[in-house]
Design brief:
The chain has 351 residues and is an alpha+beta fold. It folds into 2 domains: 85 residues, no CATH class; 254 residues, Roll (2,3-Dihydroxybiphenyl 1,2-Dioxygenase, domain 1), CATH 3.10.180. Helices cover 19% and strands 33% of the residues. It is built from 6 helices and 20 strands. Strands 6-7-8-5-9-12-11-10 form an 8-stranded mixed sheet. Strands 14-15-16-13-17-20-19-18 form an 8-stranded mixed sheet. β11 and β12 form a beta hairpin.
Length: 351
């Protein structure tokens, strides 16, 4: 026999008689279908004239009786708190009160290598990057509005990217801290960096669901150097994308969409593209579910794209040049052996 449907009531401020309460007015409850077990249903309720999205999860009759009372008053704060706790308990995405930020660009990539000056020379000589802010600890090399922060790490066993920097615009330090706190994320202020033109505490570090470091800052946190003539055979004009591997790409996708409001494209169940202005991060599942998160390559857009010319210039330097089927990008390695992709501006279209 098919089980009858039950209705889980949402109480109004009116008192109900003892016994099984009647449901609230039509539209003010979520109907629970016994045939749906671990799936969720959602309905929009108007609580104190505030539109709130809630998720209904299956519960037993004993649980239903336990949480029922003769009279229950729901205000906005109680509703939000209950929704958050229920979401955590049942694995449903948490609902926040609107402290969302806007991620607008990939600002920089922090690159560790054994010789940061050789790294500088490679990108300047081949791709026309522009160097600035050099000291004995790090230097910047720019292409367009994005930069590589090349670190002086002579003991680095292999090249790696230890964090990425993302632009938040408009920038409001208090709002960023509040948004991170609301999500129980770390918020570490940057300090003691001589390259910060406006002094310390101008950017905030946090971590994604797998512990990878993300730096958030204003669009003008670094001063772009004045252009100088370049004699490089190729000219990089900006960051195209970053490829990020992790045990569960969906968690990282949801982290960025919730916190920074990014657009998502090409989500096929194993990877997705997350857009920051004209650039994007490819988040993908790693083959090893216990592997640490890693940026496995980064890609830069080359002006006046010509696959043959790019191939020739790489071959001259003894570098590999593997083209994609469409001829819109070439995979190679830089002098440190790090995976580098050179791209046409038409490799992917911004949504």
């Amino acid at each position: 026999m098919r089980a009858a449907k039950r209705q889980v009531p949402v109480y109004t401020k009116k008192s109900r008689p003892i016994g099984r309460p009647r449901p609230a007015k039509a539209g003010a409850y979520v109907e629970r279908n016994p045939r749906i077990q671990n799936k969720t249903q959602s309905e929009t309720l108007n609580v104190e004239k505030v539109q709130i999205k809630i998720y209904a999860v299956p519960i037993t009759l004993e649980q239903e009786d336990k949480y029922m009372s003769r009279e229950t008053t729901l205000n906005r704060r109680q509703m939000l708190k209950g929704m958050a706790l229920g979401a955590i308990a049942f694995g449903v995405p948490r609902v926040f009160e609107g402290r969302s930020l806007q991620g607008t660009a990939i600002n920089h990539i922090s690159y560790q290598s054994a010789d940061y000056k050789k790294t500088r020379d490679f990108y300047v000589d081949l791709l026309g990057f522009q160097a600035s802010d050099e000291d004995d600890k790090q230097l910047y090399i720019w292409a367009g509005d994005a930069l590589i922060s090349a670190k002086n790490t002579p003991r680095a066993p292999s090249p790696s990217m230890d964090h990425i920097g993302l632009t938040v615009d408009p920038w409001d330090q208090s709002a960023v801290q509040a948004a991170l706190k609301e999500r129980d994320l770390t918020a570490m202020m940057a300090s003691n960096d001589p390259h910060d033109p406006k002094g310390p505490n101008q950017t905030i570090f946090t971590r994604d669901p797998f512990g990878y470091t993300v730096q958030l800052g204003a669009k003008d946190i670094e001063v772009k150097p004045a252009p100088v003539p370049s004699h490089s055979p190729l000219q990089a004009v900006g960051i195209n994308h970053i490829s990020y591997q992790c045990p569960d790409y969906k968690k990282v996708r949801d982290f960025y969409t919730d916190l920074l409001g990014v657009q998502v494209t090409k989500d096929d169940g194993t990877q997705a593209y997350l857009w920051f202005g004209d650039a994007f991060i490819v988040v993908r599942n790693s083959a090893n579910k216990n592997a640490k998160p890693v940026i496995d390559h980064f890609a830069w857009t080359v002006a006046d794209w010509n696959r043959s010319r790019v191939t020739i210039e790489l071959t001259k330097r003894g570098l590999q040049a593997q083209s994609d089927p469409e001829g819109l990008s070439i995979i190679t390695r830089d002098l440190n052996g790090y995976n580098l992709q050179l791209c046409s501006k038409d490799l992917e279209k911004r949504p």
